[in-house]
Structures are given as structure tokens and as C-alpha cells.
């Protein structure tokens, strides 16, 4: 804890004490014991969150985990747009050999096409223009445009056999994040906040960091519902941490007043609210007083965690020069580590720009450069701090890309369309086997031939690592018990330690 | 089919129902509701509750069967395990097994009822529900089912599917409290539970309540003073009448309708381009302003285009069915999304008008309610017949057909209420319904998937609710007629329940979106039916029914809650007090605008863009969004329009409103969450709109009063509709004095603090005084009482 923070904490406590002296509310103890969000709520007998009138505090809906957890938190490095597995991880020399030949119908085998290539006469196969080399103990092939990732390969569990049902961005990203292609359901982080609560008194359990890639700057957009709470209580929504004046929306005090003036306003407000509580008897007012205290604490804790000025040079060297530029992927990876240190449960990054329908070879090299060094650094940094053992880092997008060219195939250029049937993600950290490759695609890189992993399997496995049975973490809404994995999902046991 | 004995039981034996309802612990344990569309269910797990002497199927048994058994033993014939359905008596009493030698339920015979054995067995391989279902029954629930079988295992039809009949008005011991029939029903139940109603709310708070509920705005200080000083016995009624006749009322009713109609200013997927639907919103405001009867209001929206010689107004109203999300993502398979649009229309119809979860019968028969997959697609087929595309070619600015174009000509005709002159466009295209001549065939879709059609289906309605009359046209107009058919058991109940929800915070059926088996049971079933019938008898007159509710003594109670009552009935199911309700997202902002004098009361027209933190749209856009890529804040008076007119970008909705539980507008919503979070505190403390309003309020207070005490009193009353007491006044006055001192000590930079927001105050005011008073107002705007309608 920095000296500044200690002083602020102390002044806060003092203020609470002076406030306590004047009222019989006992809010001080409450605020000290409280966690942000979930613990202000407890479940009733329906398993529905209700306001905790007793203010004792329970973390999340689950009184105990379904089984021992391997990890406490997740950092999800979402590569938005659909990174091409064929240029990054899934080495397919056959595609170079048969370059320009039409995709055999026997391989496509009825796969539906997006509207963007459905009209093409031909589907010319195309192999990666970027070379692959073998790395690590097992000689795993990794693309040369991911040199830092390649060096980390012995830490990674690479899954080459991911598949999804959606073939377009909006439904596909929504599917990964909520378990349903259509909007309206809670996102992964919201489920975790709801189920497990927060380990940190001063930060939201679910934080979101966005960055924009150089590979396709005007790529597909994002939607705030991707970190929405759906039908869960809004305390479980993802809170975006931004590289902006207000790192969290509305966080900063208005200009023209000092922290002390603000504190005085809050004390005055609490006294008036408490008086009204005495008059009207509505416990909701008590809860509101506590929420204002939490807001006040966030005003200190969020800037503290966002302020990376004290990070030593060697850390910046690990993450790369962009780590000093707020809002970049590298800076967000560094922030992710800082949030992990603060025990934030679910840290969601989005890096946009992986949607290379055309000019893929050049664009993906740039895009890979955006993320390669910092992603690897994050894993290494967590490891050197002993955090990797109870953190899961996930790297991946919403689908893969076709093994044939979208648009004109030339000697130096091609594009690739969306491909749902096979793509690659990697994981690293607690509970998953390091240095393995799981699953396999055919020589065309089109179909999975071994160990397929569906999106719901991925979600079930993540929850399993956190100590949650994905079939048991449910929320009843409109008469139905919903869960992240809808009605599917199998744990991928072979990748677990 | 409707079964008369059952119906008679339900409505003709209120005393028996009361005796059930009188059992408070169990009643309260039913259907806990945290708000939003979370149905409470059957928590009978209150082990302190004794088992009732007479088990009632509707209140005690069915909630358990539905919630824990129906998933495998319910209405979905294809999902039935072990050949057993507990959905109807006939099915439940059937002989089971190959030899047909055993029974799940033998009425009156627990020994031979296998169900009982399966509930109480310790053998996990036999136990029901099975462990892998992750469902369990409490001891209490098991005992209920056992006793029910012991007492004859009587089944009754689902209460909501039996058409309401006029109940008799209950007699009460207290004969002076009731103002109208509502109170007789409420009081009778209170007396059964040994409770008394609360005393009347203060006149100030009563005025605040009715102003917010009807018009969405707080009363002015002058209105409060006039009302408090008016001793006429008809003063309150006159206020109600005058409020109901305002445009504010129409706008306030429209705000709720925007959630139901999932209105937005963008298409909602991927690039989320702008769309023009605000002329439809103008029509909604117009309709409420005219007090259009609800049946007509809904018929226009469902099927205005099919009315004989449909005029432009009737066609415009059908925009209701086109407010759903529409994709513009380049690569989608059009038919996949066209099916989604039709689904959305059908599901919205179910949620909004029938209070049913029709979406649950898309992939298979409904697990809980008697709605088959066939029923689902028959309803779907009503909405499947417009000439639309799943994907409209082109990008921003392309209008998905069918649409109508509103020009000066229409504006000068029946569409005079469309605020065309506020638009930069001379002609505005609005998406509407337009039935194709050749019917597009509809099919049951296997697992609900667009490219797996099976059996062809034709327009029809679920027989379990009300068979579709043969002489009705098999189109949306026929569907609207069916909805308002005299024997439709749901429409009036669902409607009046929603009105009750807006006046009392929660519906008589708390799950206002679900009147099915998994929904909450009515707390006051006879009152619900009484009101449903009244609504019909009054010609679906919305204003009349709202006025009737507002005139009840129940509505006029104080919201103050004693410790005892809070413990006994925390959710206020028995209505022994008025609820304290946090204002909605819209009302919190609108109140700040109103009491600061900033509110621009222009009605209708295109949406506007008030303050929003910089960079939110920009951070998520893909660069394609056209006019929705960059947020360009409105200027001048457009900053201060009511929140009803705030531009709604569906994929990035206004964050301050979302923080206060506004609906996302992705889907039809009839009930919002009501939460209390730290992010809400941050908005109220730091949103420039609140701070700008604070300094305007301070300025106005200074303009009207010379003494600081009077200035503070004025502000407090503006914000809370009452005068502060001595303690409050002294706290605020001390605070103000301290703030003056802080200016001197440079803890406050008045210049900076007073420059927040666009509105400029002339230089004649003392900055020190203005800043100190603005901070006082800022504090008052943050009071729980200020953002509450008590």
C-alpha cells in the first residue's frame, strides 16, 4: 500500500469515526467490512440475490465452491475479429503446396458460408505467407510473426480444435461471452461476480479494458452488452477501465473542489440520509449510504491501480514500448497484471482489428505485433510474481478464418473469411497443462480431426477451474434456470493438471 | 378448455382463498422478487411455516410441481421421462410401467402413490428430483405434496387461463377507511392478517407521488403550497384530473411504452447504424395524449395496416412491430436474421400483451406452460408475412423495407402530431408493417433453427388460452381481435397489472411478464379480476383506471414503515403501506432539469444527445457506424429535453441511464430492475448534468429569496417536495457556511466548479455565495429522498 493510499485510508476511517460519533447507524463497520458489490447482497432461499439488510455480507451466491478451485481469477485476452489460426498457430504446409486449388467439396462438406464469400465461384486454397518454426520442448510450430509467444510456448496450453456455431462477429462474440448468440444474457464476468463475489474491497469483480489494433483499424465494433449483466443484478456488470480522464465513467470529482470538500459533502449526505432512514424506516436508505462509501473508495482505488508510473523499467521492457502509452494493448496487459494483483476476479481485455478479409498477410503481421510481446510478458510477469498458479490467462478470438482466399489471390496477397469449424486459442496458468497442444485439424486446416472443443466446453472448463460446476451456477429468470453454458458444455478434462 | 367447476371455485369462494392467503409466512415466502424480470417462485422452504390444513393446488402444489418437476414431467410431451406427466390430473393418475401396474399418484392413497415414495426415499437412484437435476425439494415441500395426495390430489386449471369473473366486494370490519372497492379488497386481507393500513401520506408527499406517477415530474413549490392550502374535499381529485390532461402525462406513459416496444434510434447489431423511428414515438405520445382506449391503441400497433381503409396514422402505429433489432453485418445469412425478426415480434406480443414466455416454446414444447412448439410457430406465422429482408443491402442510411415516407402532405393530414419540422430531413422514412398479398408459408422449425423447417403451420392461437374464433381473419387484425375478445383470460389482467405496477411499484402479480405456471401468484386475485373487468367495462380507458387507483385509500397511504411491518412483510405484498420507489433513470434526470428550470418541454421529434462522457461511442465503433460512430453532443436547448428523447444507441446505450437500470431495449421489457450501486453514487455526484442543475437551482433560490435559510428551504422543497425540519435545516445551513469558508480557504475554486455545463449564469452573482449554495443543492440532489418517490 502506497504511503498516499495509507493516508487516504486513514482519513477515510477517521471520517467514518467522526460520522459514527454523530449517528447510531454503525455504517463505519459496515463500510469497512463490505466488499464492492456482491457481498452487500445475499441469497434468499430462492437463490435470488436480495438486499442484505443485516449487512453481514456474503461473497457471491455460492456459499461454498462445488469443488476445490485451481484458480482464483481469469485474464481473458480477447482477440476480437477472428484471428487467422493459419497464420499464427495451425501450421498447414499442404495449403502452400496446393495453393490456388479449389477447396475440395469433400472437405467443405456442407459448411455454410457467410454472405461475403457465398457468391465466390472458387475457393482457392492458400497457405500462410508467414513462416512457422518449431519451439519449446515439444517442438511446437508457431508462426514467426509471434516471436515472443514462441518463446513462451512451454507455458502455454494451445487448443487447436476450438469450434463455434456462429459465422458472424456479433453473434460469435456474444456467444463466447454469454453462451448465447442473441443478446440478453449475462457475460462470463458477470456470472463470476454473481457466483463468487469479489476478493477486493475496493474494485469491481469484473473489469474491462479495450484497445484498438493496427491490423484493421476500421474493423468490426464492440458492444457494451458484451460485458453486460443481462438479467443479473447490475452490480455484476463489467466496469470499463478507460485510458481517459475518467478511468471509470463519472469517477472524477467535479473540477473546482478538493477531496476534503467532497468528503464533507459525503458526510453531510450520510447524516441527512441517516436521519431520513430514522424517519421512514426503509432499509434501502442504509444500503445507499454504504454505496456512497464504496463509490468514495473506488475513487482512490481505481486511480491507484491505473497509475503505472512506479513500474520499473525492466517491466516496461518486458511488455514493450507501447506499455507506456495508455489505451494500447500492451498498457492494458500491464494493467491486467496490476488488477490481478488486486484480486480482481475477471479481467477482460478486448483487442480489436483481427478481421482480415483482405490484405491479410501484411495486416496480420501488424496485428500480431500489437499483442505478441505483451501477451507473453503478461504470462511471464504473472509467473515471476507467483500469480500464474492461481490465474488463468486466455488468448483467443470468436472464430477462425477460412483456408481459402476471400477475394483475389495473388502472389503476395490474399484475404480470409470467417471460419467457425476450427480455430486456435491458448491458455496459460493454474490448472491447465503447460506446454501442450490439444486437438488437431486436418491437413487442410478446415475440419477438426481430434478432440473438438465447443464454446460451451471452453466455458464449462473455465468455470470448473474456478471451482464451479457449470450446471449448478444458475439464475432463474422468467421462470427458467439459466446458466452460462445454456444446456450444453463438457469439461475438457485432458487439458487439466 | 375452460372448466366451469374450477372457474367457480376460483372466483366464487373468496373466503376460502382468504383463509389461504391469511397464512402470512407462507404467502410471503412465495415469489420473492428482486425486481426486473426475475420471477419469484415457490419458496415454500420456510420450515417455520406449518403445513396448511387444507392444501390448495394453485397456491401450494402447482408452484412446486412446475418449478421442480415439469422440466421432465410437464407439458413438453417430447421431454417426458418415464412416461409420466404431472401436468394434468388425467396424465398424473395414469398407470405406469410396461405392466401398467403402478401409479405416480393415487388420489387419497399415499401408500400406493409412487411419487410419495420417490420424494422421501434415501435411495439416490430412485430419488426425485434426481440429484443430477440439481433440483431439490425441502421437507416442507415434500410434506405439502404428500398431504395434497392424501387429501385427494385435486387438480385445478391454471388460474390465469380462466377468464376473470366479477368477484363480490368483501366486507370489512373497518368501514371508514375505504375510498373505493380497491380498498375493500386490500383491507379485507389486511384484517385477515391482523394488520391495519398505514395512515394517509402528508399532502406534500401525496402530491409528489401522484405527480411522479402520472406525469414523471415533481410538483413545483407553488403547486405544493397551493395544494397544501386547499382544503376542498375535491382538491386531490382535481389535481389528478389536471395531471392526466397534461402532455407530461402522455410523455410519461410513453416512456414505459418505449421499454415494452424496445424502441431505439439504432438498429442494434454489429455496426448499429441509426434508424428513424421517432415519428412512431410521436404517435405514441399523441395516442396517450388523446387517451386512446387501450384496445384501440394496441390494435393500431399490431395491425393498423390491416384495418379497413387504413390511414397513415394507423399504418405508422404498426412501427411497433419493427422496433426490433435489425442486422447490417455484411456476412450474415439473411434468412437466419429474418427469422429472428419474426420471432422478436411474436415474443414481444407474448410478453407485452399476454404475459407469457412464448420464446420458451421455440425449440421444443414449453416446459412449464401449455404452449406447444406448434402453438409457438402458429403465433409466429401472424408476424411472418411482410415483405422484408434479413439483410438490407448497403450500409448506414438504408431503410429496411417495408416503410412509409412521411412528408409535408401527411404532416398536414392525419399525421399532424409528427414533429417533421424538427428534422433536418424533408421526408422521413419509417419502418412499418405491410402485409404481403401472397402468404409466406410458416413452418415449425426443428429446434427453432431457421434452416430446419418441418410441418407447415397456419395462423392460430393457443387453445389453452382461448381458441381462435373461426370467423376472425387469420392475420394480425384477427389476432388483435382475439387479444381483446371478451373471453380472453389474460389481456385485461396483464394490462391492469402493469398499471398497478406503475402505481404501486410491483404488480398484484409480481412477475408482470409471466402469468404462466412459473410466474408469481397474485397477492390479491379477486382485486386483480375486479380491476381487469373494470378496465373492460370502462372501455379500456387508461386514464380512468389510473385515476381510480390514485383515488384509493391504499394508494394514499404513507410509505413510512415500522420495524414490525418491515419484518412481517418486507416486500409489501399486503399493501399495508405505500411503497418507497427509487425514481427511474429518466425521472432522476428529468427532475433535475425541471427543478433547475433547465427543462426544455418541447414535445416529440428526433432524439437528442445530452451530456455523455467523451469517447464512449468512439472506443467501440468499428469505424463503420456512420452517424453513430462519433457522439456529437447536442447544443443549446436540445441538451435539456426530457430523457424520453435521449438518443438510444442500442449497442452503447447512455451510461448514466443504464446505471440507473434503464432497459437496454434489446428485447421487450415490462419490468425493470431496481438496484442500488456505487456507480449510481458516482453518476449523481459527478455527472455534469447534475452539477449544472445544482448551480441553476442555487441561482434560482437566490433570485427568489434573500435569506440563506429561505434559499435552503426552497431548494430542499423543490427536490423533496417537503420543508426541511429544524435539524435538517441546521445541518444544511452549517454545510453551506462551511462551504463559504472553503472558498476562502481555496478548497473550492468557484470559477471552476461553476463552469461545469454549458449554461451560462451572468456575472452579477457572488461566485462565493453561488458556489457554496450550488454545493448545498448538489448535496440535496444526492439525497435518497430526492431520487425517491415516497
- Number of helical runs of chain B? 32
The gyration radius over C-alpha positions of chain B equals: 28 Å
User: For the residues shown, what is the average pLDDT of chain A?
Assistant: 88
Oligomer type: heterodimer
CATH topology of the largest domain in chain A: Alkaline Phosphatase, subunit A
Low-confidence stretches of chain B: 1-35, 38-48
Task: Please state the average pLDDT score of chain B.
Answer: 92
Number of helices of chain A: 14
In terms of topology, how is this protein built?
The complex is a heterodimer of chains A (497) and B (790).
Chain A: H1 3-22, H2 27-33, E1 41-43, E2 49-51, E3 73-79, H3 85-88, H4 93-97, H5 105-108, E4 132-135, E5 140-143, H6 147-151, E6 157-163, H7 169-178, H8 188-196, E7 206-212, E8 239-240, H9 259-280, H10 283-306, H11 313-319, H12 329-341, E9 346-352, H13 360-384, E10 391-396, E11 400-406, E12 415-419, E13 423-429, E14 436-438, E15 440-441, E16 448-450, E17 453-454, H14 455-465, E18 475-477, E19 480-482
Parallel strand pairs in A: 3-9, 3-10, 6-14, 6-17, 7-8, 7-9
Antiparallel strand pairs in A: 1-2, 4-5, 6-13, 10-13, 11-12, 15-16, 18-19
Chain B: H1 4-12, H2 14-21, H3 24-29, H4 57-73, H5 89-92, E1 95-96, E2 102-103, H6 114-120, H7 139-150, H8 181-192, H9 203-215, H10 221-228, H11 235-244, H12 247-260, H13 278-289, H14 294-303, H15 312-317, H16 334-354, H17 373-382, E3 403-406, H18 408-411, E4 428-431, E5 442-445, E6 453-457, H19 476-483, H20 491-504, H21 525-537, H22 542-551, H23 563-568, E7 581-582, H24 585-596, H25 616-620, H26 655-659, H27 678-686, H28 688-704, H29 708-720, H30 726-744, H31 750-753, H32 767-781, E8 788-789
Antiparallel strand pairs in B: 1-2, 3-4, 5-6, 7-8
Helix pairs in contact in B: 4-7, 9-10, 9-11, 11-22, 12-13, 14-19, 16-17, 20-21, 20-22, 24-28, 27-28, 28-29, 28-32, 29-32, 30-32
